[in-house]
Write a structure and sequence with these properties.
Length: 434
């Protein structure tokens, strides 16, 4: 029987909920604390508010085996735990720095109830140096100095595949000045067949930022290559394929598109740039990654305007996809939403369809006409643009789509569709880098 540990997870978002349910699945006794009473109530009934494959089953399994429960507040969760995982939001502050106010509030709230020998583990993405900050906050808030361990254990969970990424990680990273504490945290992951890297806290925190910044760099790189491909009549999908066979490059994260979005890359790139600025390092490479990403939105808007007859004013644009990527319902920092806003600002009429987040998008973007069916979005449209790569869109009846449009123009911002097949159906097709 694996060593049973009592774990508290603070925060019931996609990271906290996935962490709590997976640790319970691994045999640990887990209590998840959140400050939203309604969320605690619904989670206790097994209602999972995030679109994560496998998570509802794991939560139900945890509740049934009584290895997982939900309580209101961080102190209530931490008071019985040997390990306390902080999985709370660290949003981007006004100046680009990560806003640690929630981490600080939670550290102060749990300090008085922590048992000597317990370990607080930062799983949220926190700036380099935060582990020491949490240590100081705990002491200032009443924890006996030297009795509480603090470690960094960054998450590498992609939205939509968070459960798989937790249970089958490429690596587990643990950062702590005290090796004995780091070993205790690594024990929690013993049943996962994955490399466990134990290092110092600053390196662990940098691994997280550097990993996300590198992935963002890969995306901006392939978007820049795509833009160049358009001028030299190359096809970026062929180029990415030819590049990917080299294991030093790999096939993943070489899909050109409207630019990266979501709750991580934009925030983490800005946070790392802020960290570099704060130590007077001129991180121009990463600044360019951000600039290319911003300009990619403009490029897609320009393509759509060109397809609409060189002006958006009075044009009707059908938009397929509003979430920041497929297989999630998350609209945070979504390029699709940013582009839809730009189309409306340009005077276009926008009819949008998204399989997972249409209604919520309509509440966020004034003037966005959201429909429940992809064909409805195309009625009288001058241009159809694909902004999120939902697989279902690939298999629609494009004769029917074309038959409803005023003009058969497609701007495929995700290279989801086959240009030859579209042109065969009398569409004027424009992709990214093709
Ligand atoms: C990311 C990291 O992958 C994950 O390891 C980290 O823990 C959290 O941030 P996530 O933000 O959920 O995960 O999404 P991801 O799948 O990485 O995509 C991020 C953005 O990049 C999306 O907007 C996606 O559409 C875009 N993207 C991704 C591309 O434009 N091209 C690609 O080839 C891959």
């Amino acid at each position: 029987m694996p060593l049973l540990s009592s774990i508290a997870v603070i925060g019931g978002g996609y990271v906290g909920l996935t962490t709590a349910a997976c640790f319970a699945h691994l045999g640990h006794d887990v209590v998840c604390g959140d400050n939203d009473a309604e969320k605690v109530r619904s989670l206790s009934k097994g209602e999972v508010p995030v679109l994560e494959e496998g998570l509802p089953d794991l939560v139900a399994q945890g509740l049934a085996s009584r290895r997982l429960r939900f309580v209101l507040g961080a102190a209530a969760a931490a008071s019985t735990a040997e390990f306390v995982f902080l999985c709370v939001p660290t949003p981007q502050g006004a100046n680009g720095a990560a806003d640690l106010s929630i981490v600080e509030d939670v550290a102060r709230e749990i300090a008085p109830v922590l048992h000597a020998g317990s370990v607080v583990v930062n799983k949220s993405t926190v700036p380099i140096g935060s582990t020491q900050l949490v240590e100081r906050l705990l002491t200032e808030a009443g924890a006996m100095p030297g009795t509480i361990g603090v470690a960094s254990n960054p998450e590498f969970l992609r939205e939509g595949s968070a459960v798989r990424d937790f249970l089958e990680p490429h690596r587990v990273v643990i950062g702590c000045q005290e090796t004995e504490v780091a070993v205790r945290v690594s024990e929690l992951y013993r049943d996962l067949r994955a490399p466990i890297l134990v290092t110092d806290a600053a390196s662990a925190e940098m691994i997280k930022y550097a990993s996300n910044a590198f992935l963002a760099t890969k995306i901006s790189f392939i978007n820049a290559i795509a833009n160049l491909c358009e001028s030299v009549h190359a096809d970026v999908r062929e180029v990415a394929l030819g590049m990917g066979y080299d294991p030093r490059i790999g096939f993943e994260f070489l899909h050109a598109g409207p630019g990266y979005g979501g709750s991580c890359f934009p925030k983490d790139v800005q946070a790392l740039l802020y960290t570099a600025d704060s130590v007077d390092y001129d991180f121009e490479l990463l600044r360019s990654v951000h600039d290319v990403n911003q300009r990619q939105h403009d490029r897609i808007v320009a393509k759509i305007a060109a397809a609409a007859g060189d002006t958006l004013e009075g044009a009707t644009i059908a938009v397929w996809g509003l979430t920041f990527k497929a297989n999630t319902d998350d609209l945070r920092d979504s390029p699709a939403l940013a582009i839809a806003r730009r189309l409306l600002e340009g005077g276009a009429r926008v009819r949008a369809y998204d399989p997972a987040a249409g209604e919520r998008a309509a509440q966020i973007v004034a003037g966005l006409d959201v429909v429940a069916d992809p064909y409805d979005a195309c009625v009288d449209a001058d241009v159809l643009t694909v902004l999120t790569e939902w697989d279902e869109l690939r298999w629609l009846d494009f004769e029917r789509v074309g038959g409803q449009m005023r003009t058969r123009h497609i701007v495929d911002a995700r290279n989801l569709l086959d240009p030859a097949a579209m042109r065969q159906k009398s569409f004027v097709y424009d992709g990214v880098g093709r």
